[in-house]
């Protein structure tokens, strides 16, 4: 069977197996993170039909892997490529920045639709002054390189942040950046404003639930039916935690004078497996979180968040595959929508049918396969190796602590009235 025929049939097969309806026109804002910290993933050319089978039209890559960028040529899928934290110091040299853009972006245009470069991942919460100091100069030099090459109108420059950059996240209207980071964040926001690039945030309601499963209703974090909560300052109603987190970021931006800056969700997801102390990590909850999120995104009358109802939701689901070489708790290796052999990790619940017994296995996998568990590889984006590395205090600041007290407050109001 030739490769073209293989792609065609495998695409059809996985639409049926996973039970997903492909929504052609209305899913322009749905993206997926394509991480590769594994030694058993399918070849990039075999990933193209998988991406299309879930209706995704955008892919976020943590590097600029030429095999992936070549495989997706003429596919119509938009790419956000990453420039890892370890390259930031080099990018302070304008010549090196331009050489990087030429090799990793310009060389693949226009066949591969690269629309953005994210420079560094969660840099500001590493508490590394050298790394932080290199971030904005690197962003500026990469953007200047795009200008010099005549690519700045089609490729934007941004960086991805952890939600831990917030000091206050609940209620959403009280959202505020950490005071010790404001002097670093403000110039970055000015850069976004001048270059018309989005502000990227990585948000995981799973972490909040994992930390306080007895206090936070599971339905509230899984987009299931629930009473929700009302922001006492704005009277806006929230029926899910993710939108509350996004609006907290909007409030923080507004407090610094950047009310109109667009916010894109560069990572969010839910693990299908976890350790004994990782409450909520299960295939059922992963199916509800990601399935309900995709349903929400593909509704014909979809809307934004309560604070920004007319703003388009640009969300990248984490992640395309389970990645067996990621360090940390079991959940880290089980965020994938798909297993490495290309079969679904679980049904997303947007069902055409329930047939899931005809799964097939991809022929060939990426270089570096091995039958034994290898040591952790060097990552092209230092901040990507572990998404659950926030300290307990950081997670409390993310809204777990304030949210707990807010729910207690709401319960007291119900008792009083």
Q: What does the model show?
A:
The chain is α/β, with parallel strands linked by helices and 417 residues long. It has a single domain (3-416), classed as TIM Barrel (Alpha-Beta Barrel). Helix content is 33%, strand content 13%. It has eleven helices and twelve strands. The strands form three sheets. It has an eight-stranded parallel barrel, surrounded by four helices. Helix 2 links the parallel strand 1 and strand 2 (58-61). Helix 7 (205-211) packs across helix 11 (392-416). The longest helix is centred in the last third of the chain and has 25 residues, at 392-416. The radius of gyration is 21 Å and the shape is globular. 48% of the residues are buried.
Q: Largest beta sheet: what is the strand line-up? A: 1-2-3-4-5-8-11-12
Largest sheet: 8 strands, parallel, barrel
Helix content: 25-40%
What is the CA-atom radius of gyration, in angstroms? 21 Å
Q: What percentage of the residues does DSSP assign to strands (E)?
A: 5-15%
Distance between the termini: 69 Å
């Amino acid at each position: 069977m030739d490769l073209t025929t293989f792609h065609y049939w495998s695409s059809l097969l996985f639409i049926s197996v996973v039970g997903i309806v492909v929504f052609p026109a209305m899913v322009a804002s749905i993206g997926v993170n394509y991480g590769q910290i594994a030694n058993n993933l399918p070849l990039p050319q075999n990933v193209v039909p998988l991406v299309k089978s879930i209706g995704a039209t955008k892919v976020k890559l943590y590097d600029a892997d030429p095999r992936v960028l070549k495989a997706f040529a003429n596919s119509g899928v938009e790419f956000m490529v990453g420039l890892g934290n370890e390259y930031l110091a080099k990018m302070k040299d304008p010549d090196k920045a331009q050489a990087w853009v030429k090799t990793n972006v310009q060389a693949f245009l226009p066949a591969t639709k690269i629309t953005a470069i994210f420079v560094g991942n969660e840099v500001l919460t590493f508490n590394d002054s050298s790394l932080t100091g290199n971030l904005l100069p690197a962003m500026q030099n990469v953007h200047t390189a795009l200008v010099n090459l005549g690519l700045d109108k089609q490729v934007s420059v941004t960086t991805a942040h952890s939600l831990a950059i917030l000091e206050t996240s609940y209620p959403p209207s009280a959202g505020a950046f950490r005071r010790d980071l404001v002097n670093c964040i403000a110039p970055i926001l000015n850069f976004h404003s001048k270059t018309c690039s989005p502000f990227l945030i990585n948000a995981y309601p799973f972490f909040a639930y994992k930390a306080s499963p007895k206090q936070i209703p599971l339905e509230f974090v899984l987009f299931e039916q629930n009473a929700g909560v009302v922001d006492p300052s704005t009277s806006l109603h929230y029926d899910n935690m993710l939108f509350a987190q996004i609006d907290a970021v909007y409030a923080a931006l507004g407090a610094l004078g950047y009310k109109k800056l667009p916010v894109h969700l560069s990572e969010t997801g839910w693990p299908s497996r976890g350790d004994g102390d990782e409450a909520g990590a299960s295939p059922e909850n992963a199916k509800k979180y990601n399935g309900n999120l995709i349903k929400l995104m593909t509704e014909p009358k979809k809307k934004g968040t309560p604070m920004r109802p007319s703003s388009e939701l640009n969300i990248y689901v984490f992640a395309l595959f389970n990645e067996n070489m990621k360090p940390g708790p079991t959940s880290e290796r089980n965020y994938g929508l798909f297993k490495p052999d290309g079969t679904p990790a679980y049904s997303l619940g947007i069902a055409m049918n329930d047939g899931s017994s005809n799964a097939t296995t991809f022929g060939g996998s990426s270089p570096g396969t091995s039958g034994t568990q290898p040591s952790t590889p060097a990552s092209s984006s230092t901040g990507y190796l572990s998404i659950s590395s926030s300290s307990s205090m950081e997670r409390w600041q993310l809204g777990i602590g304030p949210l707990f007290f807010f729910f207690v407050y709401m319960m007291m109001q119900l008792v009083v009235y």
